Amino acid sequence: MAHFNHFDFLAPFYDRFMKPMDPARMCALANLPVSGNLLDVGGGTGLKAYMLRDWVTGIVIADSSMGMLAQATKKTGLITVCSNSEELPFENESFERVIMVDAFHHVYDYHATSNELWRVVKPCGRIVIEEPDIQTLPVKIMAIVEKLALMRSHVVSPLTIRNCFPYSNAVANIEREGSISWVVIDKQSG
């Protein structure tokens, strides 16, 4: 039986209703500009990554929703790839930066996803995962609403996300502001 993808349904309206990301904040967190490519996993319509286009060489949007990717193709300069986050179709160490904005809680398997993010980021690269902070009341309410809407959401704490990167050459930090958290993981060389 086919699985209903809420994001295919929401795609035509998504950019109009989503709160824009603060590009200065993401640039600081991702340590941009950088000479190289950025991968936005679960990047949907490309709305968030598109704001970073002047600070990287190229941007690839990977998402499992064809509807969202159809919207992303309307934005100049974005490369789109239909893929689940648990099995990214890229070679090892392909990207200088990997971001995942408001998408980690929608994946089927967050351990497999974090392994893939780590696999595709280059040594001396950085991963930034922006997520709703489940430790705040508004996010707890949002998580219940998304569960009731059968959106397969599973919001986990920033600490849980950080602990998905147990590698000896991983340096991870957590930042919070309001109901948002960022887990920033640096992949040290060696």
Describe this structure in words.
The chain has 190 residues and is α/β, with parallel strands linked by helices. The protein has a single domain (33-187), classed as 3-Layer(aba) Sandwich (Rossmann fold). It contains 7 helices and 7 strands; from the N terminus they run ααβαβαββαβααββ. The protein has a 7-stranded mixed beta sheet. Helix 1 (6-17) packs parallel to helix 4 (66-72).
CATH homologous superfamily heading: Vaccinia Virus protein VP39
What Rg, in angstroms, do the CA atoms define? Answer: 15 Å
Percent of residues in beta strands: 25-35%
CATH fold description: Rossmann fold
Tell me the domain tally.
1
Secondary-structure arrangement, i.e. CATH architecture? 3-Layer(aba) Sandwich
Runs with pLDDT <50, length 5+? none
